[in-house]
């Protein structure tokens, strides 16, 4: 898969932009603040329905305008696709494919990309929410129908939390408990599927992560992933204990390698994820009613990243954390490549090379040149290896200019 042309209207600092793109590497270069990242952010939205920079979509609409339009011409296995989305300050966003209206949430079915940017250092060093979003976005890219499951889970979670808050403020009544049990079953149904899908994804990421890390760093520091499930180890405050880190060997656990020193929780033979989830909710009932929130489920899970059998968060250096996050994105691209019937995902490297030494720049260039299309942004042309500068686009003040 590749993008042959990107068109923007009132997106970020672009009143209008027309950007031709080519197979292989495409370098977008310009001084900081000129609009390089805005171009790749637009493509990232088509793939993930989100921004790697901000949480509010209105920030992507040019100041003083009511809407922004992203339009991309795509080529996949000889098929031409025109994907379009209109982002609105008020009201719902609108999407089209080949001029036919579609649900916005279906856009990722038509375009797949993997973005790596400086913000992704938070995957290693930040809070669990970022890691959950990373897994869920990758799940949706691989299996688009899971977008509906995730949306259904969020809806049920909000309803259940609302009921818990109401019960806390008014005192628990019999009918409220009966209603809560109904929401429990819905939460368990959607949540168990998410837990199992994430676990399988974590398992499958393990080997591509190790390969990517060796390719970028030139050494094997034993990078691993292991799921930490709140339904296995939520304490009274809903925090995940070390005993909730999952083990290798069952569909539910989803560990690419269990870190040394991890305690393996005992699960009854034959128990399903739904059984364990249901039991966790029953055990936390009193605490949930006291606090008015749901204390177990995929919305409170985490993934533990490790290097050399130590948690990367808190132990890895800046360079190691950066290399781990980059390798995680390259591993994601490799999984999407294996799954896809439409070709490689587009790989986007946003302002990455400035953070790398010369040796790692060369290694990264070698690692990505096999993908059908790679987009790179850089403030300094000389930071980018020569192998990636065949097609160079210069940006100045929200406009595409000649060199």
Automatic annotation (TrEMBL):
This is DNA replication and repair protein RecF. The keyword Nucleotide-binding applies. PROSITE patterns: RECF_1, RECF_2. Residues 3-379 form the RecF/RecN/SMC N-terminal domain. It is found in: Cytoplasm. The RecF protein is involved in DNA metabolism; it is required for DNA replication and normal SOS inducibility. RecF binds preferentially to single-stranded, linear DNA. It also seems to bind ATP. Residues 242-258 have a biased composition (Low complexity). GO terms for biological process: DNA replication; DNA synthesis involved in DNA repair; double-strand break repair; SOS response. Keywords: ATP-binding, Cytoplasm, DNA damage, DNA repair, DNA replication, DNA-binding, Nucleotide-binding, SOS response. It comes from Cryobacterium melibiosiphilum. One of its GO terms (molecular function) is single-stranded DNA binding. One of its GO terms (cellular component) is cytoplasm. Its main location: cytoplasm. Belongs to the RecF family. The keyword Cytoplasm applies. InterPro entries: DNA-binding_RecF, DNA-binding_RecF_CS, P-loop_NTPase, RecF/RecN/SMC_N, RecF_2. ATP binds at residues 30-37. Residues 242-261 are annotated as: Disordered. Pfam families: SMC_N (PF02463).
